[in-house]
Amino acid sequence: MNHSIHSADRATHLKIVAVALVAGIVVAGLGISARTSSAYIETAHVTKAGKPVTVTSSDAMLIR
Q: Are 54 and 62 contacting, i.e. CB atoms less than 8 angstroms apart?
């Protein structure tokens, strides 16, 4: 048994390509099914701005 991909025959190359293709389809299918679940609903939350804050370079806190 030779452990080099360069000296493998055509059937071995086809098996490797087939396994990689099936693995890619499985990963893509799991990703799509996890993303489009019925419990996942996108909603936008509005956050209102608070009072203005003054930022200074000193370590002392400024309270107004």
A: yes
